[in-house]
């Protein structure tokens, strides 16, 4: 077939994974054009701030669950066979407190908190444990993965480069700007892939007003947690959450967090940081040997804006000003754990738009 020139807009985990999977197919010349690249730390760029892990909250039978399901095998392969990717296995325990039954977090985490979630047959070593006390309604555990984003994002770039993908800095005000002269070295652009995350709300030609920030705040410490932990809720309000995970390859332990919808504040809230640390030490005494938060060895505090979308992630195609655009954005807090599933579907949509496969 004649070569197809593709521009991927955005270099977060969605854009990089989509570019990588497309680059493994013949007949495409791919440019990733983005304002922010791996190595940048900016409030507009969500991917570096993520935990990141595999802890599905998608509902059984939905597209989101299928994306998550299709992402497990690639992540498992990276953890098993590619240590240079910065992905490692970690045992995960999910604790469901009785008092959280009607909370917003419990509703959001309903599938994750279930004793029989859809992913029980996907992840290794899933088991439902008897609650140790009347405080808990259920406890489940399984083998998950935790991703060191500072290693993994450059790893994705390196794999793309090996396959001939070109990277360049660019700032677009309209999605059609990606087709302008000079963006792709081959001249004409046959298709644009929109992986702009939160910027999809203001990008001309897209302007998706259902996209909004869901602010997250974390504390990264040198202390070892031993295992990944998630709790069904907190006593500090419905916007706050408790999760703990240790990144691969010396990336530190992530203590989180919060889910603050429509909050844009880029600086850490010191009072929230104290609450996060107190919750973590209570849930995981191993962090400090049973001592207080003053025994946490803090590396840094972080704030990221999850690119959430009211109706879930958008993975679909449309023509904008005569050019096919494949959208892959709006993943909220699930960007890594749905990354391969969404990218696989986006690549299928590219091939459909280019007339290389039947319509989905």
TrEMBL record:
Transmembrane segments: none annotated. Gene3D superfamilies: D-Amino Acid Oxidase, subunit A, domain 2, NAD(P)-binding Rossmann-like Domain. It is an enzyme of class 1 (oxidoreductase). GO terms for molecular function: D-amino-acid oxidase activity; FAD binding. Its EC number is 1.4.3.3. GO terms for cellular component: peroxisomal matrix. Pfam families: DAO (PF01266). The keyword Oxidoreductase applies. Its main location: other. D-dopa binds at residues 243, 333. SUPFAM superfamilies: FAD-linked reductases, C-terminal domain (SSF54373), Nucleotide-binding domain (SSF51971). Residues 6-349 form the FAD dependent oxidoreductase domain. It is found in: Peroxisome matrix. It catalyses: a D-alpha-amino acid + O2 + H2O = a 2-oxocarboxylate + H2O2 + NH4(+). Keywords: FAD, Flavoprotein, Oxidoreductase, Peroxisome. FAD binds at residue 196. GO terms for biological process: D-amino acid catabolic process. Its cofactor is FAD. Belongs to the DAMOX/DASOX family. This is D-amino-acid oxidase. It comes from Sarocladium strictum (Black bundle disease fungus).
């Amino acid at each position: 077939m004649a070569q197809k020139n593709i521009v991927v807009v955005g270099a977060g985990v969605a854009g990089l994974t989509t570019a990588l999977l497309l680059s493994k197919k013949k007949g495409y010349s791919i440019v990733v054009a983005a304002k922010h690249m791996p190595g940048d730390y900016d409030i507009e760029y969500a991917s570096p701030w993520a935990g990141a892990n595999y802890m599905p909250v998608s509902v059984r039978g939905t597209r989101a669950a299928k994306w998550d399901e299709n992402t497990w095998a690639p992540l498992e392969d990276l953890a098993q066979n590619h240590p240079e990717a910065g992905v490692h296995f970690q045992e995960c325990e999910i604790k469901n407190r009785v008092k959280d039954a009607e909370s917003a977090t419990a509703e959001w985490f309903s599938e994750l908190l279930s004793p029989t979630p859809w992913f029980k047959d996907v992840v290794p070593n899933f088991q439902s444990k008897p609650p140790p006390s009347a405080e808990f309604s259920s406890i489940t555990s399984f083998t998950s993965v935790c991703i060191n984003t500072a290693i993994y994002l450059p790893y994705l770039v390196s794999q793309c480069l090996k396959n001939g993908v070109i990277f360049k800095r660019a700032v677009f005000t309209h999605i059609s700007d990606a087709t302008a002269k000079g963006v792709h070295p081959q001249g004409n652009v046959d298709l644009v892939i929109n992986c702009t995350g939160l910027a999809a709300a203001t990008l001309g030609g897209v302007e998706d007003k259902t996209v909004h920030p869901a602010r997250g705040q974390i504390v990264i410490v040198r202390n070892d947690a031993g295992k990944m932990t998630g709790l069904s809720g907190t006593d500090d309000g419905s916007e706050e959450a408790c999760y703990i995970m240790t990144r691969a390859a010396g990336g530190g332990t992530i203590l989180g967090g919060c889910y603050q919808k429509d909050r844009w504040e880029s600086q850490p809230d010191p009072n929230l940081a104290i609450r996060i640390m107190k919750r973590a030490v209570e849930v995981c005494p191993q962090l400090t040997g049973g001592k207080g938060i003053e025994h946490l060895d803090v590396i840094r505090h972080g704030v990221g804006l999850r690119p959430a979308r009211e109706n879930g992630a958008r993975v679909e195609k449309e023509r904008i000003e005569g050019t096919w655009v494949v959208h892959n954005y709006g993943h909220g807090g699930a960007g890594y754990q749905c990354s391969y599933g969404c990218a696989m579907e986006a690549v299928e949509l590219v091939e459909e738009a280019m007339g290389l496969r039947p319509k989905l």
